[in-house]
Every structure is written in structure tokens, then in C-alpha cells.
Amino acid sequence: MTEQQLVTVDGNEAVAYVAYRTNEVCAIYPITPSSTMAEWADQWASEGKTNIWGNIPLIAEMQSEGGAAGAVHGALQTGALTTTYTASQGLLLMIPNMYKIAGELTSTVFHVAARSLAAQGLSIFGDHSDVMAVRDTGFAQLGSSSVQEAHDMALIAQAATLEARIPFIHFFDGFRTSHEVNKIALLDDQQIRTMIDPIKVREHRARGLNPDNPFIRGTAQNPDVYFQARETVNPFYQQTPAIVQKTMDKFAELTGRHYQLFEYTGAEDAERIIVIMGSAAETVKQTVKALVALGEKVGVIHVRLYLPFDEKAFLAVVPGTTLKIAVLDRCKTPGSTGEPLLHDVINTLTEAFTTDELANLPRTIGGRYGLSSKEFTPAMVKGIFDELSKDKPKHRFTIGINDDVGHTSLDYDPGFNIDPDNVISALFYGLGADGTVGANKNTIKIIGDIPDFFAQGYFVYDSKKSGSQTVSHLRFGPDPIHAPYLVQSAQFIGCHQFNFLFKTDILAKAAEGSVFLLNCPFPAEEVWNHLPRYVQDKIIGKNLSFYVIDATTVARESGMGSRVNTILQTCFFALSGVLPRAEAIAKIKEAIKKTYSRKGEEIVLKNYAAVDQTLAHLYQVTVPETATSTLAMPPIIPIEAPEFVQNVTAKMIAGLGDDLAVSEMPIDGTYPSGTTAWEKRNVSDFVPEWKPDLCIQCGNCSFVCPHSVIRAKFYHQSALDSAPASFKSAPISARGFPETRYTLQIYLEDCTGCNLCVSVCPALSLKESGVKAINMKDKEPLMVSEKENIRFFETLPVNDRARVDFSSIRGAQFLEPLFEFSGACAGCGETPYVKLISQLFGDRLIVANATGCSSIYGGNLPTTPWTKNHEGRGPAWSNSLFEDNAEFGFGFRLTADKHHDLAVQLTRQFEAELGSGFIRDITNARQKTESEIRIQRERVAELKAVLLHLDTEPARDLLSVADHLVRRSIWIVGGDGWAYDIGSAGLDHILASGRDVNVLVMDTEVYSNTGGQMSKSTPLGAVAKFAAAGKTVAKKDIALQGISYGNVYVARIAMGANPQQTLLAMREAEAYPGPSLILAYSHCIAHGINMQNGLKQQALATATGYWPLVRYNPALRQADKNPFVLDSPRPRRAFKDYAYNELRYKMLQRTNPDDADRMLELAQQLVNQKWDIYEQMATRKGSQFHPDATFSE
Amino acid sequence: MDLSTRYMGLTLKHPIVVSSCPLSDSLAGIKTLEDSGASAVVLHSLFEEQIRRENDAFDFFLESGSDSFAESLNFFPHISDGPKDSDRYLNKIRKAVESTDIPIIGSLNGITNSGWIDYAKLIQDAGAHALELNIYFLPTDISLTAQEIEQRYFEILKAVKKAVTIPVAVKLSPFFSAIGNMAKRLDETGADALVLFNRFYQPDFDLDKLQVDPRSSYSSPDEIRLPLLWIAVLHGQLKASLAASRGVHSPVEVVKYLLAGADTVMVASALMKNGPQFLQVLVDGLEHWLTARDYQSLEEIKGVMSKKNVSDPGAFERINYIKVLESFENPFTAGHY
Fold it and tell me: What's the complex ipTM?
């Protein structure tokens, strides 16, 4: 055994480390929570790191997991050692190939960060739904329960598959293991080499397709032989468990870490045992140890090799004294008699009992736990053992929820805790991107690097992309930490944002006598009076040592600018007691030196000074004996919110969603619209303030606002009679509106402070430098008056759409946005487009949303932004999958067309009641303009009134489809990952269908939601994940693809370059009766830009010719007019002027400057060439474009 | 005609040197300048402040939005410690020195003492034949005294001279109470050359937008007056070489500067306007002027019109003021982000 190298890594890195070293080819596709494995592989390949054979594995990103599986299959069939990483729906997309790979007895390991499947809702979090859904494919399934185990099993699976010839899924719990940071013993290359049998590697190669020794594989078989051929593999499955055990034994010899297929822990004379796999096995194991120490006769069987299920090996570890067994599955099989592991266990026991191999048949019950990363704690384990103690335990149960519908859930005492005394647990509450998580990861590394210390970290994020809360769960101790559940009771609580005290119960998990550190602007002697009552009560009640630091001031005064991470990290080191104070401070300085010495001695010294200043400004607060505060946490939502929002949504917002009972949940995933309006997140301390006297009422600010917080109305001046004194207004600047006032109202509590409104405001003060008609100001002084103003503003009537000029930005500001206050990033480049379609077509809009950023900010609980207008109408929204969104939305169209035709057909049966004139009008209504639609709505209302009155069967039938007589606007919305890659074929197909669907592609040129991976939209020269060395292939031009059909309306737009063209294109696309495709430039945080310059970058993208604005309108071709219009002028700036404002382009300058120059030159050439093509197209005659049968009559 | 000149120990084939400008941004650009006849090239300045700002911006955008949302914990591939911005500059020097036969003069603008010393050494190690210190320091802090500011110049020069062995030039602004004495003391502190003068940042106002307009403009021939005066005054009084900078748009200014006593004449704006090939016009014009007056070598005209040699030295002292209109956009402090 060689000396072990100990490192602190997360599960994904631990697994990828082995997979990378033991493979030659890796076909990848990003999907949470597995993406980072693929990112590591790509990263290492770009850095020239080699596998154990000294060569660099080939990493290929595919267009989908289906594509990755195909590439894996192909590489395997030609003899390369090949792997992939995936999860959830990604694994499901691989199923067809998995059958093939297994049927052909092909050695490979798929590493799966196990994740929930989308059912009533999508979840990115962990459970075993995905791996259990592929049980029938023929893959062996080996599960890991910890970061160390995931590292080790990755190798054991790889070694075993080569010998067994059965492909393996190696799975570990998504997030809980994939993202947990823990200290592990790293396998060295020699150990890995020893495990991988070179003969088996060569045999694998020899089985590959080879024209020098040709054969065929993958035949089509007939009824005569398919069945027999299918049975040929049985011996391989029978041998596999023994091979895996043998591999585990060999591994143990090398590393000292012993593993069994089924591992028993517990009392020798156990009567009650739990059978379980995955990370929860660790939790049960630790709980069992604690309970056995208390004298309980309990035990646990940890299942590692789930498939092939080795019955003998299982029975061998079941204690003979066992009376009752609870089998736990982390998935759900609705309608079955139980979940998969339960079935296998019962089957094994029953068979053994009936064949007399087992003397007694233990009573076996089955339960579900931990779906979608639901916490699974020692308290729950205790609850299950308690249930087993009952005479008649529930045969099917759930744990961790309150199932008041099916009554499956078990009760347990949440106070039960098994934390060892020598472990220090800490909780940190931070704001997303405020450095808290990064500092904590750094702390874990620092402490983990100390030889006799172990550290664990797990990080919980909320579901918003802006202003999100992060909670870091850290543990430190002298022994390896096996606690795959959140901190239950913390000895240290760090609250890094003062306002969190008024949003979340920060001290709920504070242990008696623990340390509470609060970052706040108040000095120690004043802070007490600023605390809410519950905080005071808990500080006194739990006897906490209370410290304060003003990190912002310390940072500023010690030259750290706004970076507070080192300061707060220092506080933890000084106060937590993990290390003696002096040693702790020495460690942090050592780490600073390591991190910053590359940047120069001065930076190191500055950080040292920050550490010293921190210690000088860290004060303990003298805690009074009694609580005096009258400050309370404000209500989560206002009392006027609807019942569901009060009872359910509010609890989710408060972080109490775990307490919601099954009966409180919608049964089919249906949730009310418009709930973000009730959640006042107050993300930004700075908000825009309107100056009516300077404003030219152009509407730009409202148009670009990503969070719909800038609203405009015009109204008769008499409405101001009851206005609050601070309510602002100005005479409307349009002609023909006498006695009319205009107000721009800022919904300041919903603003994220992105500054885009200010950046587009064209109205400059002539008297004060830098003052515009809208300016960012401190929010606090405005709060009271503006909240009152908002209330008044909402009493003003919504402007009549018929009186608004839709064709101008100025007019569009008066259209009510039906997409508001989303959780998108501050300054998001996508949401203004989404908002615009909601304004233009919202009351008859159905949206099919591809999975990605837009489905997350559009549909992630607790609150969602798609809302209703004052008439109760608004966008109906749904998300199916990532890959099928075009088809999904196309289905909407089919229904709309079918039910419209049906409604027409049925209406004609009512001639006697309605009159022929009415029937002609309602069935042939032209519904192009807002007023025509309004008239049709009135007709439909009249029709419905008549039908209701008739109350006959045919009338009721027509009523069920009558709404379809108003033309529906169907929009298929998604990002470039969907449109260019995974959904490309579907998109292509529906564009070719000729049906009236509108596709909005919000093109960020990377997979934004999963963290910036390359798509086929990523431009040449840009760095992205999976293109760390810069993308070498040009972006796909799907505008030209769409145009090539001849009957597709196509537009390329960029709001920041030409908002008027954006508006025009949206309206033309919707009006066009066939398929429409809009490609919208969407600046993104993944571009590495200052988001407040997002719109300027859009303008530059167009000015440099990189993003030419175009519209192709097939309707124009009829009159032999050129359907192709180039809306932007000739390039007048160099591509560099745009590109080098963005980190994605600049990055290459740093990593490979020579190549950066070459790429930039090529990128400029591309821009020039594309422009030439477009310009040429813009000068053609209409007849030179493809004909379109829709219009050529 | 022998047009060669000595400039801080370097022998140049003629006195016309390309001063720091965007034409030397790329290696190809430097090659073009050599091919067009430049006798030496001063590379654009390595601004320590700029490097630091770029690094900060790089880190900021790399980490922007990270650890905020579970699906996207960051947005860029991890980059291992690749070349730094300063490495790019040094690399350019290295390549320029390797691929050209003319002296390559590095230029440095530091803000910290360690910056001046570290980067000066790196520029020397990269192979630069000489170093120009562009002490670009705008004392907007009105509590700073003239002595403090002057002392800063001497300290920087002293530190750099101690750190490197290649010749060191100091590029000065004209805004000193006693510019002559300043030059003398810099000479005594060890400057191998003085470059007179820096085009200093002088922003304009945009009256429509009520904003400060930092745009630069090209120099004009009128701007030679101030450097002409001081070169004429200083010629023959210092050990250090003298380089004239500002306002060279035709051979006329070149000749004037040489007559005043300059060892080299820096040119940038004229090349930006007319292209690198304009160098040849300047060289030919100079040669033509010399030939027409039957000079045998450049050395013969150096300082002919200096204060020391001119027929009426008092003429220099009677000049009370010189109007100079200029603006300077520092491309580095303009920032990209």
C-alpha cells in the first residue's frame, strides 16, 4: 500500500478523476447535477492531462444525451474505452442505446449523479428515479454512498465491466454526493493501473468493428431466434456479482478500503434491519451505531451492487435473528406493489424461505424516502426502527413528509440527534455570489489540508437567479465525516446579511451555547436594539455568544473594496474553535499567501491587513438579560393574497415547504398564475427614481426592464385628486390627449437594481451632469412613499389597448406586462423579450417553454411570474422537456386548430338560435388587430350567454370549445441549447409543417442555465465550458435554415440595437399565419460582461455586423417584393470592439494569446462573409426566393 | 549621408524613432514599422495600473454570478494559471527583439514601487534594448507639494536604475516649476535620456451631454514650440541624451528639433494619420535638407540652434508663454469594462 494523498473534493470531481484516467473517449452533454463531471473531463483534456496510458482522452460534446449515448455506443463498438456522465432525463434519453450496449455485452461505465425525473414538476435534485427507470436495460448498477466511495466505485465499476463484459451504471446521489465537498484518499495512477487489467482492455479493443477482420453486429432477428439469442447473456449476469466482489477485494488489498456487495452494520443479534442504498445508507449506518450503543437490536444492509442482484450474497448478510425488515427506496413506482429494491428483497427472502434456505421469513415492509433531495436524517431512521417495533408496522410507508392523504407517512421525533461531540458544525447564511460559499469552500480546503482534520461542506441554494440566499452547511472534526444530511444543530452560525434576520429564522438550528456571528453596519453597543424579537429571545434562551463585525467597512478601509469574504472567513477562524485562534489565523494567512502571491506581494499584504483589521473590529456583544425588541419579522406575503398563496406559497417562501402536507399540494402539478407579485423580495438597495420634468415618455426604460418593474399609465388629470402627495406625474407628451397625465411607476420592491433602464434613458438633464430622466437612488428613503404610490397607481385604470399605438416603443409601454418580477438574473437579456410577448399577445397566449433558464425563472416554485390581466386572462404556460419543446408547442397548435374547427362546425348547428349573420361573423372573423379581437371576444361572450341559456347537450358541447373561436397565439420559447442542439430536429420539423406557431429563441450562445456550456450557437473564438480553448467552428445560422423553407417568417432581433425592429418583428411573426422563427440576441451573465452594459453590447453586436438585424417575411413574396429585409446598416465597427468587451472572448487572450489573435481575425472574416451574403440576399427579387404554396395561388 | 545618431548608448541609423502608439500593438505592426524604416520603436506603455485593473476585472467577471444558483455554480471553464497580461507584453518584446534588427525600447508606467522595479526587470529580461519610464502621474490631490512630486520621480528613477542595466529614459511632462533644474537632477540621478515632453491628459467637456470628454486628438506641428525651447536650453548641459517628442508632422519639425539639440525625434501622430510609410518621407526630407546645405553628417547640425550655440541666446528667455492645445486619451485608463 502506498502512502495516501488526501484531498478535499466534491463527488463529481472524485468520480470524473477516475473515469478520465480509465477511458479513451468521453461523449458528454450537460445536465444538472452531473455537468461538472463532464466539465472536469473537458478541462483536463484542454490542459493536456493524460489517462493512465499516457494519452489525452477525446472529449466530445454532443447535441443531447441521446446523441452522447449514440456516440458512446459507436466508440465502444469500434473498440475505444468509452464513458459518459449524465442524470435524470438525460439517462432516459440514453435508454435505447443502453439496451443495445448491454445486449452486445459491451464494457462501459455510465456515471450517474442520480436525480429525480420530471413528473408533476421538474426537479434538479437527487433521488433514484432515473437509475431505477433503466433497470431493464441490462446495465449492472453499482451505487456509492459518499464522496470517497464514489471515487472508489468509479474504479471498481470500470475494472469490473472490463472483466464481466456487462456495462455498468455507477450512480451516486445527485447534489448530496455529487456536490458534497469532503476529504478523501485519492487513488494514484499506479493503483488505478493495477486495477485495470491490460489484457481485458485489449480484448475490449479486439471486439471492435474492424475491416481487417470483418463481421456484422446489430442484425435484425426473427421470431425463430431472437428469444434464444436474448438468453445467451445469462451466464455473464450470473458471474458479474462475483467479479465485482473479487474486484472490491483486490481494491481493498491496494488501498485498505474494504467494500462488499451487501454490507451489514449493526447488532449481531439484530431483530430489526433496514435495507437501503445510496448516501442514505451512511445515515442509517451512523444511526444504527448510535442505537446499538444504546442497546437496541438493530442493523442495516447497505446495498452496493443493486443489479445483478446477488440473492445469495444478500441472504448471507441478513442476521439469523432478523424479525422485521424495512426496505427503503428513493423513488416511486405509482400503482405497483412496491418500489424496486423492496421487490428484489421480498423476492429473495420469499424464494429462500420457500426453498428452505431461510428458516424464518422476516416481516418485510417498504418505504419511500428522500425524493428530490428531501432530507433523510438520523431522526427519520429512528422513526423507521420505531415503526418496525410495532406489532403491525405499515407495510408501505413514506418518511420525511406528512402524507395526510394516503396516510403512508411515519411519525418521528425531529429532535433526535446523533452528532458526535468532537464534530463542530457550522451554518452560514449568505447572498448568492456574495463570496460566502467560495469562502466556505476555501475554509474546508484549508482545514481539510491539516493532516488530522476532516471537513465536509454542503451548500443549499434557493431557486432564484438573482438575490438568492445560500446556506452553507459545514462540519469539522478529527474523524472522517459521514453525515450526508444537513446540519441539524450548529455550534457556529454566521449570518452574512443583516436583512436575513427579517426573512428567515437564522437561529433555528443554533445549538445551546453556540457562537452567533452577525455581519451588520451597527456597532456592538447599538446592534441589540436593531434585532428582531425572536433573535433576541433565541440569543438569550440558547445562551449564545454573540459577535458582530461590520465587514463592509473593514473591507473598504483595508483596501479590499467590496470583497468581504476574507473578512468573514477570518471571523469564523477566530471564533469557531475548530483550531486554536493563533493557529487558525496563521492558517488563513498561509492560505492567503498561496492564493494571492501570484498577484504580487502587495495584494498579499493587503489581505493580511484585512485579517488583522478584522480581528481588531470583531466585537462580542454584551447580551442583556431580557429581550426588549418590538421588531418582528414582517409577514411573508400581504394578507390580501389568495388562500392558496397564503397557505402554501407563503410557506415555501419562508423556507417551511417541508412542513406542507400532501393534501395541501395540487394533485397534478397545476399552480395559480401570477404569484411573484405577492413575494416582495427587495433584492436591491438601489432602485430607479423617475424625474417627470426631464422624461420624454419614450418608453425605453419600461421596454427593457427585465423584471417588469417600470410601469406606465396615462389617465385623466382628475384622477390625481385622490393621489398621495408624493405621487409623480407629467402632462402626456402625445398630441390628441387633452387633460391627460402620464405616470411612470417604479415597483421598487421588485427591482433587482440592474441599471438597464438608466443605461437606455436618452433624456439628459441640461443643468446637472450625469442626471437622466431615470436615475438609481438609495431605496430606503423612497420605500414608504413609493409603496403608497404603487397602491394608488394600481387604482388607475389599465389603458385601453385600442387607444394604444402598438407599433411604437412609446405605445408598448402602456400594454400591461403579464410576465413580472421573475427570479431571473439582474439585468437578464432574455426576460424583456418574454415580457414583450406577454404584453402584445398575453390575453390569448399559450407558451410552450423549453427547459432552461426561461423555464426556471418562468416556472420554478415557490412563485412564478406569468400572470393575469385585470380581466382574468393571461398567458397559459407549460414546460414539457428540454428536447421536445417545438413538438410540445406544435401540439398546442394542433389542438387550437382542431378545436377552432370543431367550434366553427358546432356553431353552425345553432343557426336558428344565433342567426346566420352572427354565425357568419363569428366563424369568419378576421382577427388581426386588437380591435378585431376585442369584437370577436364580444361575439364569443354573446355566444356563450346563448349557449348557457339553452343548456342542451349540443350547447354544452360547443361551450367546451367556444373559447377557441378567439384566435390563440402559440409561442414556443427556449434558449439556444434547445433550438440549436437538443431540440434542433423537432424545431426543424415544425418549421417545415406550415402551421401557425411562433418560435422565440433567446440566444445567449451557451447553455446558460447549466453554467455556460458550448452550444452550436456559441460563436467562433468564444471560450465556453467544453470549449475551453475557444470554439473553433462558426455559429450555426439557423436564420438561413429557416429562410430556406420559403414559408417560414424569420427575424433576427436585438432589443439593444433596435427596439423598434424587435417590436415590429414580434408583431409580424404573430400576424403571419404560418410558422415564425425569431432569433433574439440575449446578453447573459455567462458572457462575462457587466450586465448593465448588456444593451450596449447588443448595439455593438449589430454595429459590428456580428448580429445583423433581418426580417424574412414570406407574405411579401407574393407581390414579387423582396421578402428579405436587412434592418441594420453596414458594419461600421470592428468585431473586436464588440468582442473584447466580453470575458468569453478576452479569456483566450490570457490563456492563449497567439491563438486569440488568429481566432479574432477569423471571426472578423466570418462577420464580413456573412454580411456579404445577407447584403446580396437583400438585393434579390422576391421571385428569387423559394416559392411558398401557401401564398402562390 | 551619415544620418546615424547615438541615443542613450544605442546607435541608431537615423534619429527618427517611433514613439509609443497603437502601430506597435502587434508584432506585425512592429515589423511593418521596421520595414518602413524606423530606426527604433518604443512599444506602448506597460501600465501597471491597467494590468491590475484588468486582472481585477477578469477575476470579477470570472466569478460574477457564481455560487448563486444550484445548476450554474459558475459560468466559465476553470483556467489554470496561464500567461498574465504583463506576460503578453513581455512576450511581444521578446518576439519583437527576435524578429527585428532595430532597437526595441520598452515603456513602463508603474503606480507602486514594486511595480516599477518588478516590471522594469521583466522588460529587461524580455530583451528590450532600453527602457522608457513614462512617469504619468496627474497630481490631482492638491495637498501634494511640488517637492513631494519631484521626489517621487527621483525615487522611481533611482529604484529602476538599481534594478536594471539597460539604458533608462525618463519621459517628462513640462509641468514643473523649474523644468530645467528637474532635468538636471534627473540627469544626476542617472537618467540615460530625457524625452521631452509627454502629451498629458487634458480632457474636454461635452456640452450636450454635460460629460467629461476624454477623447484625444492628434498632435499638431504647433506643439513643437515647448519641447523645442527646452531642448535648446538643455542641450550641452546634461550627460543624458535628449529625445524630442510632440508635433512632428513633416521633415521641418525633425530638422528643427535636431538643430535645437535633440539626439532623436519621436514620431507617432503623423504615422497614425499617414501610415508607417510616412517614416520614409521624414527620413528623405531630413537627408534632402542636409544635402542641400552640404552637411556631411547629422552630428554637424545637432544643437546648432541650441541656447549654447545660437547667435542670440536671449531670444529664448524673452519667450513668455507658449499656447499649446492638446488632449490625450490614455487608451489604457479608458478601460474596457
Answer: 0.92
